[in-house]
Amino acid sequence: GGGAAANISNAFQFAAFRMITGMPIDADRKGKLAARFAEMGLSTVYGQALDSRNLPGEEDYWRVLRAKNFTYFGTGMYAGAVLGCASAEVEEQLFQLGGLTGEAIQLHDDIKDAFETPANPDW
């Protein structure tokens, strides 16, 4: 159910923080990763809260999609850039690329839901 899924999601996000603190990397990179993971968690929770309200309209759709997916997927690519010692510019570019990838994945899922018979109300 929803509660169990939320708890598992939280467990994975906190596991990421635990993993970051144990990494054999310098404090600057640990701080960058921890800050971005915190942003990801807050954004995801905010997006899920918006989504649960079934807000009407296209503007709200994009706001929910961006909050739920952009930072979540962007953080994965950002983390790879930080761990790979990329420049700050490349870190940000990969964050943006991951975010756009997350939006595309959510769009695909929503379109698939909309065209089911009957349409899946999740979209």
Task: Supply the key terms.
4 helices; globular; 123 residues; 81% helix; mainly alpha
SSE layout and pairings?
Layout: H1 2-22, H2 27-52, H3 58-83, H4 88-114
Helix pairs in contact: 1-2, 2-3, 3-4
Describe this structure in words.
Helices cover 81% and strands 0% of the residues. It starts with a helix and ends in a 9-residue tail after the last helix. With 123 residues, it is mostly helical. The chain is built from 4 helices and no strands.
C-alpha-based Rg, rounded: 16 Å
Q: How would you state the average pLDDT, rounded?
A: 89
Regions with little confidence, pLDDT below 50 for 5+ residues: none
Overall shape: it is: globular
The main sheet comes to:
none
Number of strands: 0
From N to C, what is the helix and strand string? HHHH
Structural class: mainly alpha
Q: Distance N terminus to C terminus?
A: 19 Å
Helical residue percent? over 70%
Beta-strand content: under 5%
Please count the helical segments.
4
